[in-house]
Specification:
With 164 residues, the chain is mainly α. Helix content is 50%, strand content 5%. The protein has a three-stranded antiparallel beta sheet.
């Protein structure tokens, strides 16, 4: 009789490959491990986790190493591969470009607001640097001296003076 695998997402494994196979607990646990489940919990390899998040395996492993993804379960399978709890991977807020910050709390929103304020101030200071550079040119100052005083490169100073 062919094997029957039902409800893998729920960790339910029913398999009857042969009427002669004994129904021992060890056989049942091995069948669960083969089906990607251990003690009723669905587990995924790094490749399966990456596929679920829509990224490549090295990207997934990078997320794990930086704490941006769930940590693997203890131990590894016969091939030395680590496994993750599939439900935990599904629930974990995925980082990366284009992802929602819906999980970000008030502290994160305050930090982002402060970053926007700093960016606005930087733009104001850049505009003031350009004004001072133009004033220095009108007074005949050397570009090298002005670029050093403004903390910019000579190339940037020349670019700004040329209208760039």
């Amino acid at each position: 009789m062919a094997g029957l695998l039902l409800g893998r997402d729920r960790g339910i494994v029913l398999s009857h490959r042969s009427a002669r196979r004994p129904a021992s607990p060890l056989w049942f646990l091995r069948t669960q491990r083969e089906a990607g489940t251990i003690t009723g919990t669905e587990t995924w390899t790094s490749e399966e986790c990456a596929r679920a998040w829509g990224v490549k395996t090295p990207t997934w492993l990078g997320y794990v190493s930086r704490g941006q993804a769930p940590q693997p379960l203890d131990g590894s399978d016969e091939q030395g591969r680590r496994h993750w709890d599939a439900d935990e991977v599904r629930r974990f807020p995925r980082p990366g470009a284009g992802r929602s910050r819906s999980g970000a709390g008030p502290e994160a929103e305050a930090l982002l607001a402060e970053m926007r304020e700093v960016a606005d101030r930087i733009e104001e200071l850049r505009a003031r640097q350009r004004e001072l550079l133009g004033a220095g040119k009108r007074q005949g100052l050397e570009v090298l001296a002005m670029s050093r005083a403004l903390g910019i490169s000579r190339q940037t100073a020349y670019s700004w003076l040329d209208g760039g």
